[in-house]
Amino acid sequence: MIEPEVSEANQISAGPERGESPARKAGVLRRFHIPEALMALGVVLIVAFAVLWARQGRDNPGAPAAVQPTPFPTAPVPTATATPPPTMATPLRDAPATVVLPTIPPAPAPATPVPATSPPTRIVIPAINVDAPVVEVGWRVVEHDGQMTTEWDVADYAVGFHIGSAYPGNVGNTVLSGHHNIRGKVFRYLVNVNPGDLIILYADGRAYYYRVESKQILPEKYASDEQRRKNAELIGYFPDERLTLVTCWPYTSNTHRVVVVARPVPPPAGAQ
User: Fold this and answer.
1) Greatest Cα-to-Cα distance within the chain, rounded to the nearest angstrom
2) Could you tell me whether strands 130-137 and 172-177 are parallel, antiparallel, or unpaired per DSSP bridges?
3) Going by C-beta distance under 8 Å and a sequence separation of 6 or more, which residues neighbour residue 228?
């Protein structure tokens, strides 16, 4: 009697039948358990390799660590550095503020008038409306209280320049005198001149400017000899440049002397 054929599927599902030989059973086991055995062997090898690797790293601490691969190159990310705010200088409490002033060029020095080489010929005093010619005068010897003294002449209808005094623009005392109540009265109002008033002398065709510095009214007619000598010193020589004007006072007598002293100054703005 012929047995029906049994497929492998039926064999697997049905398993070995009773009465099969051991050889057949072994072939079936080899056929169906070799893949599983290979997989199990692979797992064992992987585990063993891992154990050996770990043991090698523990036994050799200086060995280089495993390098983990970097999937993509990475560039360093720049770090933003905060900029500190500007530091304000703390001013010293008691330190004075420094102020830088603009540089101002010095004013040019006024031109020095050329010293005259001849006596003055004209005098102008705007404050008292004087505009008069100037002429040279000398002196003479007279007797006074039994003593011989010198006395200056006084010009008529003009202002007199004392011979021997300084020419305008030169070091020394330029001395001028004039009547106040007779023969032209050129210095009638000299007593009204005040410090700061302008006086102009003309010599050699040039103008020389002066400003009044002082005015004195001094006793003369009934003064002591000592007082008269002091008065005379005012029309003598001085080692600086000055102008001295002299006349008598008061109008009804000649008991006193009016003495005006002026100093040279630069020409006023716009002066010719």
Assistant:
1) 211
2) unpaired
3) 220
The contacts of residue 37 (CB under 8 Å, 6+ apart) are: none
Instruction: Return the half-sphere exposure (C-beta side, CA atoms, 13 A cut-off) of residue 43.
Output: 5
* Secondary structure letter of residue 120 according to DSSP: -
Give the model's pLDDT for residue 173.
98
Query: Which of 161, 175, 147, 265 shows the shortest CA–CA distance to 213?
Result: 265
What is the CATH number for 192?
2.40.260.10
Burial category of 184 from C-beta neighbours within 10 Å (exposed 0-12, middle 13-18, buried 19 and up): middle
- Three-class secondary structure of residue 264 per DSSP: strand
Examine residue 139 and state whether it is found in any structural domain, yes or no: yes
The three-state secondary structure class of 41 is helix
For the stretch 237-270, pLDDT in tens is 999 999 999 999 999 999 999 999 999 999 998 8
User: In degrees rounded to 5, what are phi and psi of residue 10?
Assistant: -70, -35
Which residue segment(s) compose the domain that 241 sits in?
A: 122-264
109-156 pLDDT, tens digit per residue, is: 556 689 999 999 999 999 999 999 999 999 999 887 788 888 899 999
Look at residue 260 and tell me if it is in a domain: yes
Going by pLDDT thresholds of 50, 70 and 90, the confidence category of residue 46 is confident
Total domains in the chain come to 1
Task: Please indicate, yes or no, if residue 254 is contained in any of the structural domains.
Answer: yes
